[in-house]
Design a protein that fits this description.
By secondary structure, this protein is an alpha/beta fold. Helices cover about 40% and strands about 15% of the residues. A hairpin with a 2-residue loop joins strand 5 and strand 6 (about 130).
Length: about 220
Amino acid sequence: MQLTVQNVAELLNVSEKTVYRWINDGSLPGYRVSGQYRFYRAEVLEWATSRKIQVSPIIFVEPESPTPLPSLLEALHAGGIHYRVGGADRDSALRCVVDTLRLPEEVDRDFLLKVLLAREGLTSTGIGDGLAVPHVRNPVVLHVNRPMISLCFLEKPVDFAAIDGKPVHALFTLISPTVRAHLHLLSRLAFALRDARLKEAVMRQAFHEEILAELHRLEEALPRK
């Protein structure tokens, strides 16, 4: 879905003047089409998340669809929580993460790594405080059969060119077969990672039962779809 300046202002709870200021200083990703600015919802959400900008609850409203959307808890159950994942730098850490992911045999892991690295080449998915949310820019290229989020704790923190300059030690890797599920999970993950209790559990690499319990608590506060 392409957003207008007005849509972005409503989504981020700011004035249109502020949106134009962000456009003019080159920080907000947008595209000029027939003299008007247009924005991709996923890119705006990623940008706001990396800068800790609160988003409007309207981001959680999903279009009607016969296909049910997964919860964060379901997605994390599908992807799993993994400890002591290797890697000496960003690229080798992502290689280890890709090797760890619970993917169908037909998924080309080398291709997945390439598109994850290409996404990092656009702008880092390091959102600060040692956390990153690696994902592909176009979810449908992977042809996986269900959405998943894998939480990988690195054995050693690595430089991810995160916005706050801190090395990354925990990666929530998002894999989805559809743009709709991708946006759904990305928005909920952004919401969840602003919760102090969940974030503290992730920061100290708590046991997976505790992390899942905190996520379950947060899911109860989110709109159901």
